[in-house]
């Protein structure tokens, strides 16, 4: 009887059923889409971060670069060439020099901080890295002494004298300089579980191993290796030292970017850059996600000079259209869903109340012929629940279609991750003085991420849950009204 | 058998109190056919509500057999309505979305009767009111007389002791009225029902064994 009556009511009062179901469907679809897109945006943010910080990193410790004090000369590293360096037979000068310096915007700190970190309760793993930039400066200059009759020793000096940007080796007094820079990350070959190399997979050769400490071996980002025309077995020059390339890796993060172009053992990186015992970042994995706040507090107390960031702090450093999308989704999307959902629930409630009022004599009659209050309330609630579920099913379909449309359009979002050691492409530009003073420029990397709104169990559960919730709320209120009807209502004149 | 002792019913509306029944004392033996007449607002429906255990009197006692209707809780009253009392209303009061068959079955729902038996008894009840061929029709597909026959089948399918009818022919033309009265009278005679009919219609009242008149909540016997 319950199901017969239910079926007959829903079929017999199609308009009411349709209005309630459509309202619920639209609201549920919207909530699903907003939820999926926000998950997508979060995933995109996570993948941008993952490519930089690696998988499983909960916290990072770094030190902000201190801008040079007034009047102090930024030591951005300079290339100094002796008067007779590279002089060739025809009088022109061939110069090449390679320097390894701390990454832009990075300050180094003492590696003993790693021990401090590892002693903190709740830290599951930690590893330290040294983020460096290798800049190779090479060029050719004509024989100025011949041209000008003086024995000038040309210097290319940070930020002061700039060689003419145009020209090239045209033999007519022009000069050509190539500046090739790539990022180098020194890391502990023993600590792969946490840190930037946890987000990569081997493309060729092997990764850094325990025995590589102190060895001049390098692992390259596969993309960088391709663009620099290097392969496993070749050698790469870092700070004037030749390294054997033992492997290449690709990022597993969806934006496909690795944390650096070249990975070398930490101790080698430290000694070549003259930064013995120094690191730029410590990657920390917490024992569980709920101890992250306490680990963060302990780290901050133990390392007052350093900055401690959690993944959520890091997420806020992702800006650009990805950041905008994130803000938009979490504000507008949330409020829009809440508003539409509230409206849909209200419609369902009002129509249910109206339906019960219209059926006063019907329910009075059923009570008069002996139906219990509970039975009548159950009938009303059952109708609302099924209306909600119909709306939920329709909403699920509309929502899934909507999510599929979002994924078909696959909008790309640009992101800028500030203050992160990030792979810079090989830069080749002619001439130009440069003063890469620490703090002079913040390293910022633009990444394009394609938004993919995933259809998760969570999204489906939300749809079903909301449908049931809406149905139950409307049913409870309608049922409460029906419960208050007196059986004597059955005798009310037909009017 | 109904026993009413000093039954009064007052309705409180904002400031004023309406006395719908005033010290009604009367007995209705089992198997009697009683007609209740009176002007509009006289208290006919109110009296029927008391007899039908739809409401409790404000004072006095009313019992049906051993059951003290005036003091039972709602749940018990519902139980008595479900098992012992059948109702027929002026407006038929069928569930508009259910078929004739399903409407009759609603009366068996609170008795917890298995679906197969329920179906069979409803079919038999519809046949007994001459509507065996209309079981699958919804109320809007039936004439007024047919709808009232469905309502009578619904009232009788549970085989009650008492049948209470409030203006059962009020919405019907004369010919249909006579058909319905013939039907009710026949069922009353065959089943030994206690049948109480509220009516404006003297032609209907004339068929009763006993006629009660009620004005201003006061009941008087009439021939
Ligand atoms: N629920 C109620 N609340 C307030 N007053 C009521 C209520 N039910 C009935 N009354 C009043 O009680 C009196 C008797 O009403 P009742 O319905 O019994 O009259 P009736 O004889 O059935 O009239 P009719 O022939 O019009 O059906 C009327 O004055 C009516 O207004
Ligand atoms: Mg009346």
Automatic annotation (TrEMBL), chain A:
State any single GO MF term.
Answer: transmembrane transporter activity
Per the similarity annotation, which family is this? Answer: Belongs to the ABC-4 integral membrane protein family.
Membrane topology annotation: Multi-pass membrane protein
Which Pfam families does its entry note? Answer: FtsX, MacB_PCD
The cross-references to PANTHER family, in alphabetical order and at most eight, read: ABC TRANSPORTER PERMEASE YTRF, MEMBRANE COMPONENT OF TRANSPORTER-RELATED
Q: What's the chief localization of this chain? A: membrane
Q: Which InterPro entries match?
A: ABC3_permease_C (IPR003838), MacB_PCD (IPR025857), Macrolide_Exporter_MacB (IPR050250)
Instruction: Cite the MacB-like periplasmic core domain residue spans from the record.
Output: 18-301
Could you tell me where the Low complexity compositional bias lies?
149-167
Q: Where is this region: Disordered?
A: 60-93, 143-173
Domain of life according to the entry: Bacteria
This chain's protein is named ABC transporter permease
Domain ABC3 transporter permease C-terminal: where? 337-485
Gene Ontology cellular component?
plasma membrane
TrEMBL record, chain B:
Q: Which organism is it from?
A: Agromyces tardus
Tell me where in this chain the ABC transporter domain is found: 2-223
Q: Which UniProt keywords apply?
A: ATP-binding, Nucleotide-binding, Transport
Know the name of this protein? Answer: ABC transporter ATP-binding protein
Keyword Repressor included in the entry's annotation: no
Check the record and name the InterPro entries matching this protein. AAA+_ATPase (IPR003593), ABC_transporter-like_ATP-bd (IPR003439), ABC_transporter-like_CS (IPR017871), ABC_transpr_LolD-like (IPR015854), MacB-like_ATP-bd (IPR017911), P-loop_NTPase (IPR027417)
Question: Which GO CC terms are listed, alphabetically?
Answer: membrane protein complex; plasma membrane
A Pfam family cross-referenced in the UniProt record is ABC_tran
Q: Which GO terms describe its molecular function?
A: ATP binding; ATP hydrolysis activity; transmembrane transporter activity
């Amino acid at each position: 009887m319950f199901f017969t009556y239910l079926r007959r009511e829903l079929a017999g009062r199609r308009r009411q059923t349709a209005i309630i179901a459509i309202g619920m469907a639209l609201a549920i679809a919207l909530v699903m889409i907003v939820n999926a897109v926000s998950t997508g945006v979060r995933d995109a943010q996570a993948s941008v971060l993952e490519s930089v910080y690696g998988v499983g990193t909960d916290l990072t410790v770094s030190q902000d670069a201190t801008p040079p004090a007034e009047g102090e000369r930024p030591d951005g590293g300079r290339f100094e060439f002796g008067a007779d360096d590279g002089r060739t037979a025809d009088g022109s000068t061939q110069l090449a020099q390679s320097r390894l310096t701390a990454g832009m915007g990075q300050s180094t700190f003492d590696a003993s901080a790693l021990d401090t970190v590892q002693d903190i309760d709740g830290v599951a793993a930690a590893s330290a890295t040294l983020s460096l930039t290798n800049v190779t400066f090479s060029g050719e200059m004509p024989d100025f002494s011949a041209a000008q009759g003086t024995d000038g020793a040309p210097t290319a000096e940070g930020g002061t004298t700039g060689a003419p940007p145009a020209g090239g080796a045209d033999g007519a007094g022009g000069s050509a300089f190539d500046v090739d820079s790539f990022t180098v990350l020194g890391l502990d070959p023993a600590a792969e579980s946490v840190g930037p190399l946890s987000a990569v997979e081997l493309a060729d050769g092997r990764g850094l191993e325990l025995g590589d400490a102190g060895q001049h071996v390098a692992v390259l980002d596969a993309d960088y290796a391709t663009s620099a025309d290097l392969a496993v077995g070749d050698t790469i020059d870092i700070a004037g030292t030749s390294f054997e390339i033992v492997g290449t890796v690709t990022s597993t993060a969806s934006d496909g970017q690795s944390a650096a172009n070249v990975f070398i053992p930490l101790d080698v990186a430290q000694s070549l850059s003259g930064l013995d015992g120094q690191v730029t970042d410590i990657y920390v994995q917490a024992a569980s996600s709920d101890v992250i706040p306490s680990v963060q507090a302990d780290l901050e107390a133990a390392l007052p000079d350093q900055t401690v960031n959690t993944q959520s702090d890091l997420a806020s450093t992702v800006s650009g259209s990805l950041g905008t999308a994130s803000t938009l989704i979490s504000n507008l999307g949330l409020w829009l869903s809440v508003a539409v959902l509230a409206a849909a629930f209200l419609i369902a409630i009002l129509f249910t109340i109206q339906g019960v009022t219209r059926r006063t004599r019907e329910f009075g009659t059923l009570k008069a012929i002996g139906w219990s209050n509970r039975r009548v309330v159950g009938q009303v609630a059952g109708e609302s629940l099924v209306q909600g579920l119909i709306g939920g099913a329709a909403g699920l379909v509309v929502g899934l279609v909507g999510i599929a449309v979002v994924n078909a359009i696959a909008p790309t979002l640009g992101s800028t991750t500030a203050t992160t050691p990030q792979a810079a492409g090989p830069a080749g530009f002619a001439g130009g003085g440069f003063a890469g003073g620490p703090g002079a420029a913040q390293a910022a990397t633009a990444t394009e991420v394609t938004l993919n709104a995933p259809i998760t169990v969570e999204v489906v559960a939300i749809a079903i849950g909301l449908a049931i919730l809406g149905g139950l709320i409307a049913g409870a209120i309608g049922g409460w009204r029906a419960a208050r009807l007196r059986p004597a209502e059955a005798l009310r004149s037909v009017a | 058998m109904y026993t009413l002792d000093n039954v009064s019913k007052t309705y409180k509306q904002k400031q004023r109190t309406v006395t719908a029944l005033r010290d009604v004392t009367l007995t209705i033996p089992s198997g009697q056919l009683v007609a209740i007449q009176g002007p509009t607002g006289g208290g006919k429906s109110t009296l029927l509500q008391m007899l039908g255990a739809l409401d409790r009197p404000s004072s006095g006692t009313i019992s049906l057999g051993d059951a003290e209707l005036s003091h039972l809780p709602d749940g018990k009253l519902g139980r008595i309505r479900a098992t012992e009392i059948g109702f027929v209303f002026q407006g038929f009061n069928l569930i508009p979305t259910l078929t004739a068959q399903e409407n009759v079955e609603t009366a068996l729902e609170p008795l917890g009767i298995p679906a197969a038996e329920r179906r069979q008894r409803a079919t038999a009840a519809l046949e007994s009111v001459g509507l065996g061929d209309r079981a699958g029709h919804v109320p809007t597909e039936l004439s007024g007389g047919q709808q009232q026959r469905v309502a009578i089948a619904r009232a009788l399918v549970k085989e009650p002791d008492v049948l209470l009818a409030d203006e059962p022919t009020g919405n019907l033309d004369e010919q249909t009225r006579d058909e319905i009265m013939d039907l009710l009278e026949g069922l009353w005679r065959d089943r030994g029902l206690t049948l109480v009919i509220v009516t404006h219609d003297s032609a209907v009242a004339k068929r009763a064994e006993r006629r009660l008149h009620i004005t201003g909540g006061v009941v008087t016997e009439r021939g």
